[in-house]
Amino acid sequence: MPVKIRLQRHGKKGKPYYWIVAADARSKRDGKYLEKLGAYNPNTNPATIELDVDGAVTWLQNGAQPTDTARGILSYKGVMLKNHLAGGVKKGAFTEEEAEKKFAAWLEDKTSLVNTKKDGLAKAEADAKAKALEAEKAVNDARIAVPVVEEEVTEEAIEVTEESNEEE
């Protein structure tokens, strides 16, 4: 039975939410699956991914083939690296402890990159809010200044009309 690791769509129209599942390749996209490995929410920035790394590695070692999108997600979370390191341990290239150290170092680097991106997004959002507030203050100041000018114009108009009425 050929097994695929793929995405199963859930959520509503325009707001997709995916489950990452191991399923028989012949089953429907949203149909029966063998095991749920995690979830993927592309609606957040950055996208939220919850994944059972060890379960996914087990399926990959048993011959499951990920789809292109699932492969990208698995690679992003380190499943493909962990599978690669497990293959190196089986061949005797290095020990289990060395593989765990390499994976932990990679995971730490990846976490720092993701946190840097989140901080950058938060800063950009705060800057955008500050600019919007300054623009709104400028517009409000302009609105306050405009009625004062209109009152002066109307007083001048009243004086001009009174003068013209007296001349008649």
What would you note in describing this structure?
With 168 residues, this protein is α+β, with helices and mostly antiparallel strands. It contains 4 helices and 5 strands; from the N terminus they run ββββαβααα. It is elongated and about 110 Å long. It has a domain at 3-93: 2-Layer Sandwich (S16 Ribosomal Protein, Chain: A). It has a 5-stranded mixed β-sheet with strand order 4-3-2-1-5. Helix 1 (53-61) crosses helix 3.
Shape: elongated
Using only C-alpha atoms, the radius of gyration works out to 31 Å
Largest sheet, order of strands side by side? 4-3-2-1-5
CATH superfamily of one domain: Ribosomal protein S16
The first-level CATH class name of one domain: Alpha Beta
Write down the secondary-structure element order.
EEEEHEHHH
Largest sheet: 5 strands, mixed
Summarize this structure as a short list of keywords or feature phrases.
168 residues; S16 Ribosomal Protein, Chain: A; five-stranded mixed beta sheet; 4 helices; 20% strand
Short description:
The chain has 168 residues and is of the alpha+beta class. The protein has helices at residues 53-61, 68-77, 79-91, 96-167, and strands at 3-12, 15-24, 35-41, 48-51, 65-66.
SSE layout:
Elements: E1 3-12, E2 15-24, E3 35-41, E4 48-51, H1 53-61, E5 65-66, H2 68-77, H3 79-91, H4 96-167
Parallel strand pairs: 1-5
Antiparallel strand pairs: 1-2, 2-3, 3-4
Helix pairs in contact: 1-3, 3-4
